[in-house]
Amino acid sequence: MLNDIIAVVREVAQQEVMPRYMQVARQIKADGSSFTEADIAAQEVLLRALQTIRSGAVMGEEMSQEAQEAQWLKGMTGGAEGLWSVDPIDGTSNFLNGLPYFAISVAWMVQGKSELGVIYNPVTDEMFCAEKGCGAFLNNKPLPIKRNASILSSAIANVDLKRLHKKLATEVAANPPYASQRNYGACALEWCYTAAGFFDLYLHGGQKPWDYAAGSLILEEAGGHMSGFEYDDYWAGSPWRRSVIAALDADLFEQWRDWVRVHQ
Q: Which of 92, 145, 179, 217 is deepest in the core (most CB within 10 A)?
């Protein structure tokens, strides 16, 4: 099943996404976020193709909020075997502007938790994938690829400042406890880069299922650690705005989680 998903994702990247790279216009949703005809085309093909791999509810980032909530409910309680969670292009603004940091993200979820995840950056040909209980991989190489910091002061963090509460954002900006900070604008790849060891720390104030479904499994299967701002159990709380505190190293994660909770 995982290999079938990988094949579908590669084909959609080749046929629907990359031919439109820097060739399409920005469109704006009701919530102010961006989308393009590439997002719509890729989602349509993905949702059809994934249903041939395994039947279930299907939820895409480009659906209406009402449709997303209905599919989520169907996947959790409506008698469906599970739920396909799809982001056809995570990092649409990067895609539009020619920044090579965007990805197709697909997850198979059962009872609200992910069992399969695939995230693919077609520009760099980075294929991240994981199956629950079977480890995580980048182009068939086991994750993590590297391990770096074990103390907060020497860590590199990926932090999404705009979704943090004002107090925490101010503390992070003015008095960061880590050595250096990045944010490239694609949640799916942020999870993957943390799982690979390219980032030591990850912080995000609120994600929706297609933002975290595949990436959280990849980090978990790489041996990483994660929680929410309020809950040690990452999966507690609302699935529609899930905060993230994460790190690959267990000791570093505890230092990072404790710092965030003191300063939020």
A: 217
Per residue in 83-117, pLDDT (tens digit) is 999 999 999 999 999 999 999 999 999 988 999 99
* Interval 34-58: pLDDT, tens: 678 898 999 999 999 999 999 999 9
pTM over 0.85: yes
